[in-house]
Amino acid sequence: MAIPAVVLFAAFHTYPALQGIYYSFTNWDGLSLVYNFVGFKNYINLFKDTNVLNSYLFTFKFAIVATILVNIFSLAIAVGLNSKIKGKNFFRAVYFLPNVLGVLVVGFIFNYLFANVIPDLGEKMNIGFLSSNILGSESLAWIGILIVAVWQACAFNVILYLSGLQTVPVELYEASSLDGANKWQSFWKITFPVIAPFFTINMVLSMKNFLMVFDQIIALTNGGPGRATESISLLIYTGGFMGGEFAYQSANAVIYFIVIMLISVFQIKVLQKREMNM
Protein backbone atom coordinates (compact mmCIF):
# COMPACT_ATOMS: atom_id res chain seq x y z
CA MET A 1 0.00 0.00 0.00
CA ALA A 2 2.93 2.32 0.56
CA ILE A 3 4.44 1.73 -2.90
CA PRO A 4 2.13 4.16 -4.82
CA ALA A 5 2.88 6.96 -2.34
CA VAL A 6 6.63 6.23 -2.50
CA VAL A 7 6.57 6.25 -6.31
CA LEU A 8 4.66 9.54 -6.47
CA PHE A 9 6.93 11.13 -3.88
CA ALA A 10 10.03 9.99 -5.74
CA ALA A 11 8.69 11.14 -9.12
CA PHE A 12 7.55 14.60 -8.06
CA HIS A 13 9.96 15.38 -5.23
CA THR A 14 13.11 13.26 -5.01
CA TYR A 15 13.86 13.03 -8.74
CA PRO A 16 13.39 16.78 -9.42
CA ALA A 17 15.55 17.57 -6.38
CA LEU A 18 18.34 15.33 -7.67
CA GLN A 19 17.97 16.92 -11.10
CA GLY A 20 18.35 20.35 -9.54
CA ILE A 21 21.58 19.27 -7.84
CA TYR A 22 22.83 17.89 -11.16
CA TYR A 23 22.01 21.09 -13.06
CA SER A 24 23.70 23.21 -10.38
CA PHE A 25 27.05 21.98 -11.75
CA THR A 26 26.22 23.12 -15.29
CA ASN A 27 25.58 26.38 -17.13
CA TRP A 28 22.09 25.42 -18.35
CA ASP A 29 19.73 28.37 -18.80
CA GLY A 30 16.59 26.26 -18.51
CA LEU A 31 15.73 26.27 -22.22
CA SER A 32 18.74 25.32 -24.32
CA LEU A 33 19.30 21.75 -25.44
CA VAL A 34 23.06 22.08 -25.00
CA TYR A 35 24.87 22.89 -21.77
CA ASN A 36 28.31 22.35 -20.27
CA PHE A 37 29.58 21.27 -16.90
CA VAL A 38 31.20 24.10 -14.95
CA GLY A 39 31.95 22.34 -11.68
CA PHE A 40 31.65 24.52 -8.57
CA LYS A 41 31.71 27.77 -10.54
CA ASN A 42 28.06 28.55 -9.76
CA TYR A 43 28.61 27.98 -6.05
CA ILE A 44 31.68 30.19 -5.99
CA ASN A 45 29.90 32.99 -7.84
CA LEU A 46 27.00 32.90 -5.39
CA PHE A 47 29.24 34.14 -2.59
CA LYS A 48 30.33 37.06 -4.80
CA ASP A 49 26.81 38.07 -5.85
CA THR A 50 25.57 41.05 -3.82
CA ASN A 51 21.94 40.36 -4.80
CA VAL A 52 22.19 36.87 -3.33
CA LEU A 53 23.84 38.11 -0.13
CA ASN A 54 21.24 40.87 0.28
CA SER A 55 18.39 38.39 -0.20
CA TYR A 56 19.86 36.13 2.50
CA LEU A 57 20.22 39.08 4.90
CA PHE A 58 16.63 40.17 4.29
CA THR A 59 15.29 36.63 4.66
CA PHE A 60 17.13 35.97 7.92
CA LYS A 61 16.04 39.32 9.37
CA PHE A 62 12.45 38.68 8.39
CA ALA A 63 12.42 35.05 9.59
CA ILE A 64 13.94 35.80 13.01
CA VAL A 65 11.59 38.69 13.81
CA ALA A 66 8.53 36.88 12.45
CA THR A 67 9.29 33.66 14.37
CA ILE A 68 9.63 35.54 17.66
CA LEU A 69 6.44 37.57 17.14
CA VAL A 70 4.35 34.61 15.98
CA ASN A 71 5.24 32.49 18.99
CA ILE A 72 4.68 35.32 21.47
CA PHE A 73 1.27 36.23 20.04
CA SER A 74 0.22 32.62 19.47
CA LEU A 75 1.07 31.52 22.98
CA ALA A 76 -0.69 34.53 24.50
CA ILE A 77 -3.82 33.93 22.41
CA ALA A 78 -3.78 30.19 23.17
CA VAL A 79 -3.57 30.84 26.92
CA GLY A 80 -6.52 33.22 26.63
CA LEU A 81 -8.58 30.77 24.59
CA ASN A 82 -7.78 27.97 27.03
CA SER A 83 -9.18 29.92 29.99
CA LYS A 84 -12.78 29.88 31.12
CA ILE A 85 -14.42 32.43 28.81
CA LYS A 86 -17.78 32.56 27.07
CA GLY A 87 -17.86 31.65 23.39
CA LYS A 88 -14.51 29.86 23.61
CA ASN A 89 -15.21 27.56 20.65
CA PHE A 90 -16.40 30.49 18.53
CA PHE A 91 -13.20 32.44 19.14
CA ARG A 92 -11.10 29.36 18.42
CA ALA A 93 -12.78 29.07 15.02
CA VAL A 94 -12.28 32.78 14.34
CA TYR A 95 -8.57 32.65 15.16
CA PHE A 96 -8.11 29.59 12.96
CA LEU A 97 -9.85 31.20 9.96
CA PRO A 98 -6.71 32.92 8.54
CA ASN A 99 -5.08 29.51 8.13
CA VAL A 100 -7.94 28.43 5.84
CA LEU A 101 -7.67 31.46 3.55
CA GLY A 102 -5.30 31.36 0.59
CA VAL A 103 -2.01 33.18 1.13
CA LEU A 104 -2.19 35.05 -2.19
CA VAL A 105 -5.80 36.11 -1.56
CA VAL A 106 -4.85 37.46 1.87
CA GLY A 107 -1.84 39.19 0.38
CA PHE A 108 -3.86 40.97 -2.31
CA ILE A 109 -6.44 42.08 0.29
CA PHE A 110 -3.76 43.56 2.53
CA ASN A 111 -2.08 45.12 -0.51
CA TYR A 112 -5.30 47.04 -1.15
CA LEU A 113 -5.54 48.01 2.54
CA PHE A 114 -1.96 49.27 2.70
CA ALA A 115 -2.21 51.12 -0.63
CA ASN A 116 -5.68 52.68 -0.32
CA VAL A 117 -7.64 52.25 2.91
CA ILE A 118 -4.94 52.99 5.49
CA PRO A 119 -3.44 56.07 3.67
CA ASP A 120 -6.94 57.55 3.23
CA LEU A 121 -7.67 56.94 6.90
CA GLY A 122 -4.35 58.50 7.88
CA GLU A 123 -5.04 61.64 5.85
CA LYS A 124 -8.52 62.07 7.31
CA MET A 125 -7.21 61.66 10.86
CA ASN A 126 -4.04 63.72 10.19
CA ILE A 127 -1.77 60.85 11.22
CA GLY A 128 1.43 61.34 9.26
CA PHE A 129 2.96 57.86 9.37
CA LEU A 130 -0.31 56.30 8.17
CA SER A 131 -0.77 58.69 5.25
CA SER A 132 1.61 56.87 2.92
CA ASN A 133 1.77 53.33 1.60
CA ILE A 134 4.46 51.53 3.58
CA LEU A 135 4.83 48.97 0.79
CA GLY A 136 6.33 51.75 -1.33
CA SER A 137 9.11 52.47 1.17
CA GLU A 138 12.38 50.55 0.93
CA SER A 139 12.86 50.71 4.70
CA LEU A 140 9.27 49.93 5.74
CA ALA A 141 7.95 47.55 3.07
CA TRP A 142 9.19 44.50 4.98
CA ILE A 143 7.07 45.51 7.97
CA GLY A 144 3.91 45.28 5.84
CA ILE A 145 4.91 41.77 4.77
CA LEU A 146 5.72 40.94 8.40
CA ILE A 147 2.26 42.02 9.58
CA VAL A 148 0.50 39.82 7.02
CA ALA A 149 2.77 36.81 7.57
CA VAL A 150 2.52 36.95 11.37
CA TRP A 151 -1.25 37.47 11.31
CA GLN A 152 -1.82 34.42 9.13
CA ALA A 153 0.80 32.18 10.74
CA CYS A 154 -0.61 32.71 14.23
CA ALA A 155 -3.71 30.70 13.29
CA PHE A 156 -1.88 27.37 13.00
CA ASN A 157 0.47 28.00 15.91
CA VAL A 158 -2.44 28.84 18.22
CA ILE A 159 -3.96 25.42 17.50
CA LEU A 160 -0.68 23.68 18.36
CA TYR A 161 -0.30 25.62 21.59
CA LEU A 162 -3.91 24.88 22.51
CA SER A 163 -3.19 21.19 22.03
CA GLY A 164 -0.25 21.52 24.37
CA LEU A 165 -2.22 23.41 27.00
CA GLN A 166 -4.79 20.60 27.06
CA THR A 167 -2.06 18.25 28.32
CA VAL A 168 -1.32 20.30 31.46
CA PRO A 169 -2.88 18.52 34.50
CA VAL A 170 -5.35 20.72 36.39
CA GLU A 171 -4.04 19.26 39.66
CA LEU A 172 -0.75 21.10 39.18
CA TYR A 173 -2.53 24.46 39.09
CA GLU A 174 -4.53 23.56 42.18
CA ALA A 175 -1.36 22.61 44.03
CA SER A 176 0.42 25.78 42.98
CA SER A 177 -2.50 27.96 44.11
CA LEU A 178 -2.38 26.30 47.54
CA ASP A 179 1.32 27.15 47.70
CA GLY A 180 0.50 30.81 46.99
CA ALA A 181 1.80 31.00 43.42
CA ASN A 182 0.44 33.81 41.26
CA LYS A 183 -0.63 33.40 37.62
CA TRP A 184 2.75 34.35 36.19
CA GLN A 185 4.58 31.89 38.47
CA SER A 186 2.10 29.14 37.56
CA PHE A 187 2.65 29.82 33.88
CA TRP A 188 6.45 29.96 34.04
CA LYS A 189 6.93 27.07 36.47
CA ILE A 190 4.12 24.73 35.36
CA THR A 191 2.55 25.61 32.02
CA PHE A 192 5.63 26.44 29.98
CA PRO A 193 7.74 23.42 31.06
CA VAL A 194 4.85 21.08 30.20
CA ILE A 195 4.23 22.60 26.77
CA ALA A 196 7.96 22.97 26.00
CA PRO A 197 7.82 20.25 23.29
CA PHE A 198 5.05 22.18 21.55
CA PHE A 199 7.14 25.34 21.80
CA THR A 200 10.02 23.50 20.11
CA ILE A 201 7.78 22.31 17.28
CA ASN A 202 6.34 25.78 16.74
CA MET A 203 9.75 27.46 16.75
CA VAL A 204 11.21 25.02 14.22
CA LEU A 205 8.20 25.07 11.90
CA SER A 206 7.86 28.85 12.10
CA MET A 207 11.50 29.49 11.29
CA LYS A 208 11.42 27.03 8.42
CA ASN A 209 8.26 28.52 6.94
CA PHE A 210 9.45 32.12 7.27
CA LEU A 211 12.82 31.30 5.73
CA MET A 212 10.81 30.06 2.74
CA VAL A 213 8.59 33.18 2.55
CA PHE A 214 7.36 33.67 -1.02
CA ASP A 215 3.61 34.09 -1.52
CA GLN A 216 3.22 37.12 0.73
CA ILE A 217 6.03 38.92 -1.06
CA ILE A 218 4.60 38.11 -4.48
CA ALA A 219 1.19 39.48 -3.50
CA LEU A 220 2.39 42.57 -1.63
CA THR A 221 5.61 43.90 -3.15
CA ASN A 222 6.92 41.41 -5.73
CA GLY A 223 10.34 41.95 -4.19
CA GLY A 224 10.23 45.74 -4.38
CA PRO A 225 10.68 48.61 -4.03
CA GLY A 226 13.75 47.83 -6.07
CA ARG A 227 15.04 44.67 -4.40
CA ALA A 228 14.38 45.72 -0.83
CA THR A 229 12.06 42.77 -0.05
CA GLU A 230 13.52 40.11 -2.31
CA SER A 231 13.68 36.85 -0.37
CA ILE A 232 15.81 33.86 -1.29
CA SER A 233 12.81 31.91 -2.61
CA LEU A 234 11.74 34.83 -4.79
CA LEU A 235 15.27 35.30 -6.12
CA ILE A 236 15.50 31.62 -7.03
CA TYR A 237 12.14 31.77 -8.79
CA THR A 238 12.68 34.99 -10.73
CA GLY A 239 16.29 34.26 -11.61
CA GLY A 240 15.78 30.61 -12.44
CA PHE A 241 12.50 30.65 -14.36
CA MET A 242 12.43 34.21 -15.69
CA GLY A 243 16.05 35.34 -15.79
CA GLY A 244 17.76 32.48 -17.62
CA GLU A 245 19.80 31.50 -14.55
CA PHE A 246 18.36 28.03 -14.02
CA ALA A 247 21.64 26.29 -13.17
CA TYR A 248 22.93 29.24 -11.15
CA GLN A 249 19.77 29.44 -9.06
CA SER A 250 19.74 25.65 -8.73
CA ALA A 251 23.06 26.02 -6.93
CA ASN A 252 21.47 28.73 -4.81
CA ALA A 253 18.59 26.37 -4.00
CA VAL A 254 21.01 23.64 -2.89
CA ILE A 255 22.77 26.01 -0.50
CA TYR A 256 19.39 27.30 0.62
CA PHE A 257 18.26 23.76 1.46
CA ILE A 258 21.45 23.07 3.42
CA VAL A 259 21.09 26.32 5.38
CA ILE A 260 17.46 25.58 6.34
CA MET A 261 18.36 22.01 7.32
CA LEU A 262 21.27 23.14 9.52
CA ILE A 263 19.17 25.84 11.21
CA SER A 264 16.35 23.36 11.90
CA VAL A 265 18.73 20.77 13.36
CA PHE A 266 20.41 23.45 15.49
CA GLN A 267 17.04 24.66 16.79
CA ILE A 268 15.93 21.15 17.68
CA LYS A 269 19.18 20.37 19.51
CA VAL A 270 19.16 23.62 21.51
CA LEU A 271 15.45 23.61 22.36
CA GLN A 272 15.34 19.93 23.27
CA LYS A 273 18.33 20.43 25.55
CA ARG A 274 16.43 23.29 27.16
CA GLU A 275 13.44 21.00 27.66
CA MET A 276 15.62 18.56 29.58
CA ASN A 277 16.89 21.34 31.87
CA MET A 278 13.38 22.54 32.82
In short:
This protein is an all-alpha fold and 278 residues long. It contains twelve helices and no strands.
Proportion of strand residues? under 5%
Helix/strand class: mainly alpha
Task: Kindly provide the radius of gyration, computed on alpha-carbon positions and rounded to a whole number of angstroms.
Answer: 23 Å
Number of helices: 12
Task: Work out the helicity level.
Answer: over 70%
Query: Could you give the count of β-strands?
Result: 0
**N-to-C span:** 42 Å
C-alpha geometry: globular
Name the average pLDDT: 90
Q: What's the order of the H and E elements?
A: HHHHHHHHHHHH
What's the story with the biggest beta sheet? Answer: none
Low-confidence runs of at least 5 consecutive residues? none
Question: Can you walk me through this structure?
Answer:
This protein is an all-alpha fold and 278 residues long. It has helices spanning 2-23, 41-46, 50-82, 88-100, 103-124, 141-165, 170-178, 183-194, 196-211, 215-220, 232-242, 246-277. Helix 3 packs antiparallel against helix 9 and helix 4 (88-100) crosses helix 6 (141-165). The radius of gyration is 23 Å and the shape is globular.
Task: Using brief descriptors, characterize the structure shown.
278 residues; mainly alpha; 12 helices; globular; 74% helix
Task: Map the helices and strands.
Layout lengths: L1 H22 L17 H6 L3 H33 L5 H13 L2 H22 L16 H25 L4 H9 L4 H12 L1 H16 L3 H6 L11 H11 L3 H32 L1
